[in-house]
Design goal:
23% helix; alpha+beta; binds zinc ion
C-alpha cells in the first residue's frame, strides 16, 4: 500500500500496477483515524490518497 500526495498519485498507481499486475484501489487518505497524519510515500507532503493493491 502506498500513500500519495497530489503530485505522486499517478506514480503510486503505476508502481502498484507494476507490482500487482492489477488495478489498485484508490481512496482518499484521512477518512479514518489511521491515516490522519500520514505523509506521502514519495515525498514529505501530507498524503491525500491511499493506494491499495
Ligand atoms: Zn508526494
Amino acid at each position: 500500500m502506498y500513500f500519495a500526495c497530489n503530485e505522486h498519485i499517478e506514480l503510486a498507481i503505476d508502481m502498484t500496477v507494476d507490482e500487482q499486475e492489477s488495478a489498485p484501489i484508490v481512496d482518499k487518505a484521512g477518512t479514518n483515524n489511521d491515516t490522519l497524519s500520514t505523509v506521502c510515500s514519495f515525498c514529505e507532503n501530507d498524503a491525500i490518497y491511499r493506494v491499495s493493491p
